Amino acid sequence: MSKHFETNAIRISPSKSDQKEHSSAIYLTSSFTFDSAEEARATFADETEGNIYSRYANPNSSDLIEKLCAAELTEAGIATASGMAAMFGSIASLLQQGDHIIASRSLFGSTHQLLTRVFPKWGITSTYGDISDYKNWESLIQPNTKMLFLETPSNPGLEIIDLEWAGKFAKANNLILVVDNCFATPYIQQPSKWGADLVTHSATKYIDGQGRVLGGLILGKSELIKDVQFFTRHTGPAISPFNAWVLSKSMETLAVRMERHCDSAMKIASYFEGNQHLEGVKYPFLPSHPQYEVAKKQMRLGGGILTLTLKNGIERTKRFIDSLEMISRTANLGDSRSIATHPASTTHSKLSPEERARVGITDGLVRISVGLEHPEDIINDIDRALDLSK
Ligand SMILES: *Cc1c(COP(=O)(O)O)cnc(C)c1O
Fold it and tell me: Residue spans with biased composition (Polar residues) (predicted)?
C-alpha cells in the first residue's frame, strides 16, 4: 500500500549492513570492490546493479535520491554537491549550442548569472518572461526554444507562477519544463503534478534545515534523468556521502519543520501587515499578495519566507538590520534560526539597479527566513528593531 509523505521520508532507507544498524550507515568510500573480473565487467556494462565509484553513485546519495523521488512524485534523480550544480546540470545536460530558454524573470541570483553570463558563452541564450502578463509569453517563443525554467515562489520577491498554466504552456509548445522548488519544498508543492519534467533543489536550504551542508537535486522523468546522469557522471558534481547522509536524515523531519516554519511565518506576516514603519509585507498566504489565489491553488502552506519593505530607503533598512538582536544577519535561508537578509546590498548586489527594479528588489526590501524559534520572540525582535531604526 502506498504510504504518506512523512512515512516515506522516514522509512525509506538503504539496506542494513552486517552490523544491523538502526540509523543508516555512512559509506565514506570513493570506490566499491568486485568479487571477480567478470563481476566488474558486468557492472560496468550495466548488466548487473552495483556501485562502481562514488562519482557515479554511492549508497548515501542513492538513499537521498530515493527519498526525494518519493517526496516529489518523480521517477528518477541525481544528487549534486550544491544547488547551483543542480541548476547548471539540468540545463547543460539537456541543451546545446543554439538552443534558447524562456525563464521567469525573478530568479535566484546565481541562476540569473548562469542564464545571462555563463550559458551565452556556449551559444545557449535566454529570454525572461513577466508573470503579470502570461499572454505575452507566447511571443517569447523562438524556433529554437527548448526549455521553460521557473522558480516559484521566487527569491526574494515571492512571485508565484501558476504551475497549471506553466504545465500547459510547456506542453503546447514542446518545452522541457524545469521548476526550482527550493523555496516551497515538496511538502508544500509538487511541480510534477502540474507537468514539470524536471524539479531542481538546493537541498542546502529547507531539506537540510539547519544550515550545515550544501547539496542539490535534479529529479524527474527517467528518460531525461538518463541524459542528466551521463552529464553529471562525467563532469563530476557528485555530492559527498557525508552530506547526502545529513540531508537524508533531515528529510525525516521536513514535514514537521515545514508545518512550524509556515505557521510562524503566517503569524508574523499577519502581525506586521499595516505596521506604521513598513511600506508593505509580502507573504504568499496573505490575501494582499498579488498572486494569493494561485498560491492557494498550488501550495499546501504559505512557506517559511516573508518580505518586509521598510519606509525611508537604504540607510534606515541597514539600521534595522543592525538593530536586530536575535535574528541572524546572513545570506542563507531555510534554517532553524531566523535570518534577515538585505538582497539589494548582498545576494542581488551583482544585478544592475535596473535589473533589481525589474524583479521588485527595492532598497527597503528585507527577506526574513522564519526559523523555528518561538514566533513571539521573532516578532519582538523585529518590532524592537523597527522602533530603534526610526
Ligand atoms: C540557494 C538557492 C540556490 C542555489 O543553491 P546552493 O545550494 O547555494 O548552490 C538555487 N535556487 C534557489 C531558489 C536558492 O534559494
Answer: 335-350
Average pLDDT along the chain: 95
Q: Is the CB of 182 under 6 A from ligand 1?
A: yes
DSSP string, 264-316: HHHHHHHHHTT-TTEEEEE-TTSTTSTTHHHHHHH-SS--SEEEEEETTHHHH
Calculate how far, in angstroms, residue 202's C-alpha sits from the geometric centre of ligand 1: 5
Q: pLDDT (tens digit, 9 = 90+) per residue, 56-108? A: 999 999 999 999 999 999 999 999 999 999 999 999 999 999 999 999 988 89
- The pTM of the full predicted model, rounded to 2 decimals, is 0.95
Delineate the domains of the chain, giving CATH numbers in brackets. Answer: 5-251 (3.40.640.10), 254-388 (3.90.1150.10)
Nearest to 203 by CA among 135, 250, 141, 170: 250
Q: Residue 101: in which H helix or E strand, if any?
A: strand 100-104
- Taking the C-alpha atoms of residue 83 and residue 100, their distance in angstroms, rounded to an integer, is 22
DSSP-assigned letter for residue 35: S
Is 108's C-beta closer than 6 angstroms to any atom of ligand 1? yes
| Span 368-374, average pLDDT | 98
**222-238 per-position pLDDT tens digit:** 999 999 999 999 999 99
Q: Which of 129, 112, 119, 217 is nearest to 173 (CA)?
A: 129
Q: Whose CA is nearest to atom 4 of ligand 1?
A: 83
> Cell triple for residue 30?
570513493
